Amino acid sequence: MKTKGKLFLIDGSSFCYRAFYAIKNLSTSKGQPTNAIYGVITMLKKLLEEGNPDYVAVAFDLPKPTFRHQRYEGYKGHRKPMPDALVSQIPWIKEVLQAFRIPLFEREGYEADDILGTVASRAVTEGLEVYLVTGDKDAYQLLGPQVKVYRPTRDGYEIIDEEALYERWRLRPTQVVDLMALMGDDVDAIPGVPGIGEKTAVELMQKFGSVEQLLARLKEVPGDSRRAAIQEHQEQLQLSRELAALDMQVPLDLDFAALTRTEPDQEKLRQLFQTLEFRKLLAELSPKASSQAVKITTLASADAITDFVPAIRRSGRLALTVAMSDPHPMQAQVLGVGLCWESGSGILLEGESALEDLKVLWKDSALVKVCPSLKETWVLLDRHGLRMEGACADPSLASYLLDPARPSHRMPGLAQEFFNESVESPDPLQAAALEAEAAFRLMPQLEKEIQEKSLEILFRQVEIPLAEVLAKMELHGIGVDRAELEALSKEMSRTLERLTSEIHALAGEPFNINSPKQLAQILFERLKLPVIKKTKTGASTDEEVLRRLSTIHDLPAKLLEYREMHKLSSTYVEALPKLIDPKTGRLHTSFNQTVTATGRLSSSNPNLQNIPIRTELSRRIRRAFVPCDSTNLFLAADYSQIELRIMAHLSGDERLIEAFCKGEDIHRVTAAEIFHVTPQEVTGDQRSAAKTINFGIIYGMSPFGLSKELGIPPHEAESFIERYFQRYPGVRRYLDQSLAQARAHGYCTTLFSRRRYIPELKAKDIVVRQFAERTAINAPIQGSAADLIKVAMISIDRALAGRRLRSVMILQVHDELIFDVPSAELEPMKKLVKETMEAPMLAGQPIRLEVPIEVKLKIGRNWFEASA
Predict the structure, then answer these.
(1) Do 320 and 367 belong to one domain?
(2) E strands within 445-561?
């Protein structure tokens, strides 16, 4: 018989539990758990996409007792209550289902299974094909020609029909209730018959067909103890049958037309996803087509822009997005510029001359320029001999300040998140105009939130001016000694060939050293070395494993040497020459302001913040970085122990402050206290251990972590930490208070009010929660250090411009700044840099801590000499 369509009936409670345990530790920035909500949404979307039902509905249990509880007091008596973290998500899940326009059924006194059975039986009479989406076996009693179970598995879903049931148990759906009555159900606490499990129950049902026949022919039951158990528990068996049978007469007002699958309420989902901070799901919603709503005018000539200048000036704010031929502004050609000064409309200037055509607006200091990708805009303007005057704003930087964990701070992601609109287009010029219009609308909204969260100083006096400073650094670049890299490349190639031969000889056969699978076969199958740890794909061959195995065999040690050499060669020696700009002969890295959660800068293409220095080979890589003029020198300025100094300032610990104010060696002082010796008696190893403890405290290191780091027993590490806190009680008070505040507010702040949201502080998983606690301890300290050096960079840039020096700031690496300095300017630069970094200016005032800020200077003809 041809059915009228497919109906999917979902067991909502089962769905929620499955989602809750499938996804761990997901919550909003305010601490609301969302793992089950997110899981339900993703499972639902996949179910609807793969199953493609014509009708759909969801049934839920209610927390109140049902007729089964009245019939049997122990029903579900041993089941644990629903976890609080899931309870709080159920109302949200129901809201989400309503936004998907999926009807919900729930009835006091009945379970979701009874509702599914009732709806299914009526749906069959309506001519519908029914799929019960549940993992519960009791749903098998509903199977029929038009009813199937859509059972979730680890790999997706499997369909259970009458034939599949028969293949599994050699039973019919009408026998399922009797089967469950015999074997009972641990989940629902259906007692069944003691001693009879699934296998025996199936055998009995296959032999006797029903409970009635079983009891009538009890003498034929094999096994005295089995027969006696059934005889003794006949009443319990009948009770179990009543509990297992679904009630398919639940009083429901059913209108199958209302179950017809329809398009979700996109706007309602968008609001929910925004509130629940589901940015990925938000991005997947069908976006509004901005191009339909935004009127874009392409100007026929450059002169036409002058007609709009009065209107732009009256607006007081102009959003501009530059369309580029390449994402890297040092290599890009300008394709055009998109402009917007009123919502709903945009102007498009085409061609390389677009920047020059807007010169009158760039120079208008009374006009606020809103530039997505502000730093890149500065680079392009400088390359064309232009600069912006007056105030600037960047929605990407604002977004980063407000929520550093946001997946994307670029305009396409922000437009989708805030407006559910697409600003993307195959035409880069069209996309630029759409981005400018979206940025114009979004910026006031972001600025309002920045003001509410007291982030104005960070936004306007740190991040915005820093964009121009970074643009100057990118434009200048850093010199590279090609000959040094070429010589090093040849040497490393020879070494890699030698290591490969030695490794193959130790292995007893050639193999692909870079293949983890082949390496695992050599180590653990051929050489029979012990498996230290496993991954999803098999035995691990990571660095930790190789280090441990190197104590019992020579091959792992050679592999570690090979890996380090191969990484240095591929990542730096071979890659760096290819990144040298052919026009300037220099490397021009990109500094990223919106990547790290801590507020630190990062760099890419190439990553110059990660150039190693540990080994002789890595030091030689640093030697290849040289000033742009052979007569110049590198000046490196490094904040000395800045995070410990910030800790002293934040904690107010008197002893820690006193040690820094006296200029004492803080690691030696700490070592003397922990090891009960005088500072003069402290050994190198003791000072090193104290250094590990000092910095470990900042990073929230546990006794176990410290014991692993120092190679000492955990109890000894715990004793060290306890003695540290006895020496510096203010530090313990500060850490406790900082953690308590982070738990209370869901975020922590730096000295300069930068926020770091840490929702994982409320995670149920202790490992995740402990990591979040360590983050909450460290983030204010590391974030304050990041803010401090940013302020110093801005202050130094202004001082260099004010004194018209030719020296250039070229790199920022964590707590260090590097300058390319003409020899004649070395002495004034040393004085300027040290004084400015030790008292950088913010909001017209020098930044001072309770302890002295100390900067150490180094000079060299290359980067290694300046950092040695």
Answers:
(1) yes
(2) 478-480, 534-535, 538-539
Q: What is the CATH number of the domain that holds 600?
A: 3.30.70.370
CATH code of the domain in which 102 resides: 3.40.50.1010
Q: Which helix (H) or strand (E) holds 262?
A: none
414 and 548 assigned to the same domain: no
Q: Dihedral sign for Cα 784, 790, 795, 796, please.
A: positive
**Domain limit, last residue, from 587, 605, 633:** 587
Same domain assignment for residues 165 and 94: yes
Residues 425 and 468 in one domain: yes
Q: Is 587 helix (H, G, I), strand (E, B) or coil?
A: strand
Per the structure, how many domains does the chain have?
A: 5
Residue-range definition of the domain harbouring residue 583: 488-587
C-alpha distance across the termini of the chain, in Å = 84
* 334 and 463 share one domain: yes
**Domain-embedded: residue 229:** no
Q: Are residues 50 and 87 in the same domain?
A: yes
Is residue 554 domain-shared with residue 571, that is, in the same domain? yes
| Helix segments in 809-848, DSSP class H | 826-838
Cβ atoms 634, 627 nearer than 8 A: yes
Identify the residue whose tokens are 């180590």. 523
Cis peptide before 606 (omega within 30 of 0): yes
| Residue 737 included in any domain | yes
> Could you tell me if residue 473 is inside a domain?
yes
State phi, psi for 609 to the nearest 5 degrees.
Answer: -90, -5
CATH number of the domain that residue 660 is part of: 1.10.150.20
Q: How far is CA 198 from CA 191, 235, 284, in A?
A: 13, 20, 45
Three-state secondary structure string covering 517-535: HHHHHHHHHHCCCCCCCEE
Degrees, nearest 5: CA angle 464-467-469: 115
Q: How far apart are CA 242 and CA 177, in angstroms?
A: 9
- Output Rg (C-alpha) for the chain, integer angstroms: 35
Encoding tokens for residue 277?
A: 């901070």
Name beta bridge partners: 10: 58, 133
Q: What is the pLDDT of residues 612-664, one digit of tens each?
A: 777 777 788 899 999 999 999 999 999 999 999 999 999 999 999 999 999 99
Nearest to 132 by CA among 254, 12, 255: 12
Q: Nearest Cα to 496, choosing from 569, 552, 437?
A: 569
Any bridge partners for residue 33, and if so which?
A: 27
- Phi-psi domain of 843 (left: phi exceeds 0; alpha: psi -120 through 50; beta: other): left
The verdict on residue 181 lying in a domain is no
Q: Note whether 212 and 175 are within 8 A (CB).
A: no
pLDDT tens-digit map of 520-529: 999 999 999 9
Determine the Cα–Cα distance for residues 169 and 8; give it in Å rounded to an integer: 25
d(CA 76, CA 70): 12
User: Do 406 and 502 fall within a single domain?
Assistant: no
Nearest alpha-carbon partner for 428 in 529, 516, 325, 359? 325
- Any idea what the CATH number is for the domain that residue 385 is in? 3.30.420.10
CA distance 395 to 566: 41
pLDDT digits (tens, 9 = 90+) for 714-750: 888 888 888 888 889 999 999 999 999 999 888 999 9
532-589 per-position pLDDT tens digit:
888 777 888 988 889 989 889 999 999 999 998 998 899 899 999 999 999 999 999 9
Q: State the Cα–Cα distance between residues 683 and 693, nearest whole angstrom.
A: 15
